[in-house]
Amino acid sequence: MAQDGSTLGTWISENPDASVGAVTLAVTVAAYLAKLWLTRKRITYRVHLDSPVGVTPRGVPDMIEVELRNKQKTVPEPSFALVRIMNTGSREIHENDLTRPLTLEFGGRRVVDAQIVEARKDLREEVAKDADWPPPGDTLVLPRVPLNRRDRIKVLVLLSGPVTREPAVDCHTFLRGGRVVRDTARGNGPGRRSMVLGGLALLLVGASLVLLTGLGPGPSESHCAAGTLRISGSSAFEAVTEEVAARYREDCGDAVVEVDGGGTIAGLQQLSPSRREERAALSDGPAPFGDARFTPHTVAVVPFAVVVSDDVPVRDLTTAQLRAVFLGEITNWDQVGGPDRKVLVVSRDAKSGTRDAFRAAVLGGADEPAENSPDCATASNGAGLTRCEMNSTGGVLEKVAEHDNAIGYADLSAADRAAGVEVLAIDGVTATREAMADGRYRFWIVEYLYTYGRGRDDGLLSRFTRYLASDDAKAILREEGYFPCGDPWPGDGRHPCDAP
């Protein structure tokens, strides 16, 4: 430090290294913040109203029921939701930025009717073209349209039924290079941008002073690295990994991170010493094969679900019934309380980690019969069971939705968002973290990222692997319905992500 009576300016002039460091820090942080702000894409949604239809007079604890009719039909347990969706980022959002349409969910309630009360003209025109909008179901899908900065959409939705899962209103999409967040701001205080920039300015001043006075540690290592990395494997975890990779690419402009599926086994087969810095593989559960150099990195707990076509009225099967269905002992839905229709089983192919998880958790280790229906329509061998196989999660969900007698399995996050399918309870239990922790729901796995060795500490492979455990990545995983390995696990037992 400078001697007593010296000014800060005098001390800086006597310590040129400190002044250069302070200027470098200020310029670096300012440039990073400018890049982050200018390239940010963000959609926020706000629930202005979510209320059942009824009357609750003062002093009366229970709501008086009111009958509501829509299109000449009575709506049981009616409620209204008013949701505003808005581009609050600093960049326009184009149609191809939305890899999946904006989808609203209402905690299990069914959509009876909907009206767009505020939107751009082109969105209103798109909706007006579709006489069947909104389609029946427990989701409301909005047409893909571009959103300029500050563009907003307000939707009033008439719903039927109780809230069976939380959150009561949720909005999902895959936004390339951005995110969707719930707007919970209240009151008329300073705007979020002002608070963020003001706080960052204070942080910058404080960091500069710390450096000038020679206190505190140096700047932390960046999570960015240049290079190309290709991640293959589990199709169940492909979509959320692509979303994490898109955020990483946005932050790190020199990084190329590509994500494709192909199944767990196909992904693991691509790991090799010659490509150790360029390849990684997603595996549903521990790798079924590999050599001693395969290095596992736990990412998240992934719940799976059994799904049926929404034309099948069955909503709960026991483990014994599921085994009988998938092993060909039950071939007609009337054998489990459904209609007199032949069962179509849509399964994953032999390279799938999801299939291995289903065999272990539901089938008790038994192997499914061989495929006998390449077109998922008729059995080529005349057997009582009609069974086809798909090489991706999306393929299973599409086929189950397409056929009114189909059953299959997929990761719960994708199943919840798929149109035309319904998730089954197993032994009367649905997939929650608590049910998985206490053993009541067993159809889940730990998702692993495998690498060949650990890679260079400063290389893209190591940096991205560590990024998967960052707060940003874990926030994306939670939003998409997964349980990051760094999060607490209910109960007193061992966390499933910990090594045995």
What's the domain count? 3
What fraction of residues sit in β-strands? 25-35%
Continuous helix count: 13
CATH architecture of the largest domain: 3-Layer(aba) Sandwich
**Nearest-angstrom radius of gyration?**
27 Å
CATH structural class of the largest domain: Alpha Beta
CATH level-3 fold name of the largest domain: D-Maltodextrin-Binding Protein, domain 2
Structural class: alpha/beta
Please identify which CATH superfamily of the largest domain we are dealing with.
Answer: Periplasmic binding protein-like II
Distance between the termini: 52 Å
- Average pLDDT for all residues: 83
Please give the largest β-sheet. Answer: 10 strands, mixed
Number of strands: 24
Q: Quaternary status of these chains? A: single chain
Overall 3D form: globular
State the helical fraction.
Answer: 25-40%
